[in-house]
Amino acid sequence: MLFKLHPDTPKFQVFVLLNQELIYFLNKSINQQRFGRRLFSYTRVGKACWENSKANDLSVKNDLTRDKFQKLFENLKREIETNRQQLHRVVIDNQDLSSFFSTPDPALLSFLRPETFKAFKVLAAHLYGATKDLQPIIDAAGGANIHSHFEAFRIDTLNGNICKACGMEKLAPFRANIGIENQWRADYDHQLCKSKYPLFAVHPDNLIPLCDVCNQDAKKAKDLFVAEDTSLRYSFYPFSEEAHSYVLLEIDNLKDPNPSVKVSWNTSDSICISKLDTWDNIYEIKNRVEGEFRNLDQIIENEIQPENYTEFEHEISRKARAISDSILKSKTWAYWYHKFFCVLDSIDKDAFWERSKFVQSMAMDGGDYILLG
Ligand SMILES: [Zn+2]
Predict the structure, then answer these.
(1) Quick one: residue 12, left, alpha or beta (phi over 0 = left, psi -120 to 50 = alpha)?
(2) What are phi and psi of 147, to 5 degrees?
(3) What confidence category does residue 84 fall into, taking pLDDT thresholds of 50, 70 and 90?
(4) From ligand 1's centre to the CA of 166, what distance in Å?
(5) For labeling, which of 115, 134, 204, 261 is most exposed (least CB within 10 Å)?
(6) Contact by Cβ (8 Å): 265, 273
(7) Which residues, at least 6 apart from 356, have a Cβ–Cβ distance to it below 8 Å?
(8) At 247, is the secondary structure helix, strand, or coil?
(9) What pLDDT, on a 0 to 100 scale, did the predictor assign at position 166?
(10) What is the three-class DSSP state of 36?
(11) pLDDT grade for 372, boundaries at 50, 70 and 90
(12) How far apart are CA 23 and CA 45, in angstroms?
């Protein structure tokens, strides 16, 4: 994450309750012989999970929440008892996600039979995709559904409407004259994807709203702790760790026709570098930033429109002034543009100006030509 989440970020209570229910079920499944109501808690959530079944709604053909729990139960019965105990133990022992991030173990559930793992995965996806929207569960969670949680998440005094992973995009546009229920919302990203880590599918600290580019275009189902070459790696814990103070921007080939921006890291700490590399790999940070700054003359023209060198120099140092937290949280790309102008302010601006003046006069000649033509 470019910026960590605000410490007062509200937990989504529906996930808190569903996560508790999942743990309750795994515990009861250790010794109970047959699938039944006693595997679920005697709360409104347990009742809602039990009653959400195709057996109770004959118009439905697909399995519902209870049916998915049943499939997992049947598979757990085929495991040896110590495996059922171990599954419950593993889930209990890994509820603190910050410690999981510092000592990640991607093979946490490898002791399960593949069929059991698959049934767990199917249940996890259903809890997240469908069960969370059951009205009795929303009622039990104090009435806050995912739309109201999203609005609470992005208020200006907490996280703002900006994607914390990249700082480049809004979470979702805010529309006037539209109620909370009908506002567009960002998707919630499973930091630990539910297909590989079903035990965290409804863990409240594992779900974070991200922009569409980060979530859908860049991250997809990439594993935070396993690189493409299957080596283990580290990742920033979104609630307490952030990348922004380790990012270095440089302008290469200043005097060339096409100077370019390069992103690198200004730390020699190997774990921190691993986290930064993961962040870059997951969200394609370097490619996106270097792509945004691919035409520096255009950037200067759009941001400053200088008429002479004095104006150019003055505007750059003005844009390099310290930037407030509230701007970083509300304005897309603010962090990256500020970084860019700080670099430009610190280098040989004359060389840059000479080159860009050349480009400007070419553009004017072109303009004259069009007028004359
Ligand atoms: Zn993003």
Answers:
(1) beta
(2) -65, -45
(3) very high
(4) 4
(5) 115
(6) yes
(7) 296, 297, 300
(8) strand
(9) 98
(10) coil
(11) very low
(12) 13
Nearest to 166 by CA among 323, 312, 332, 32: 332
Contact yes or no for 123/74 (Cβ under 8 A):
no
CA of 283 relative to ligand 1 center, distance in Å? 7
| Residue 95 CB contacts under 8 Å (≥ 6 apart), including other chains | 203
DSSP symbol at 218:
I
Q: At what angle do helices 349-372 and 334-346 cross, to 10 degrees?
A: 110
Q: Which of 227, 238, 140 lies closest to 189, judged by CA?
A: 238
- What's the one-letter identity of residue 340? F
> Which tokens belong to 307?
């008429």
pLDDT, the chain, mean: 93
With residue 344 as reference, give the H or E element that holds it. helix 334-346
pLDDT tens-digit readout, 263-297: 999 999 999 999 999 999 999 999 999 999 999 98
Alpha carbon of 171 to ligand 1 centroid (Å) = 8
Instruction: Tell me the backbone φ, ψ of residue 247, rounded to 5 degrees.
Output: -95, 135
Q: Residues 127-155: what's their mean pLDDT?
A: 95
Query: Rounded to the nearest whole angstrom, what is the distance from the C-alpha of residue 16 to the centroid of ligand 1?
Result: 25
Evaluate whether 84 touches 76 at the Cβ level (below 8 Å): yes
Q: What's the gap in Å between 158 CA and the centre of ligand 1?
A: 17
Ligand 1 centroid – CA 215 distance (Å): 7
Does residue 371 carry a pLDDT above 60?
no
Gap from CA of 55 to ligand 1 centroid (Å): 42
Gap from CA of 211 to ligand 1 centroid (Å):
4
- CB atoms closer than 10 angstroms to residue 80: 10
Q: What is the pLDDT of residues 297-316, one digit of tens each?
A: 889 989 998 888 999 999 99
* This model's pTM is above 0.85: yes
Cα of 159 from ligand 1 centre, angstroms: 13
Query: CA-based angle 241:247:248, to the nearest 5?
Result: 165
Ligand 1 centroid from CA 308, angstroms: 36
Q: Which residue has the higher pLDDT, 305 or 368?
A: 305
Residue where the block lists tokens 């990640």: 104
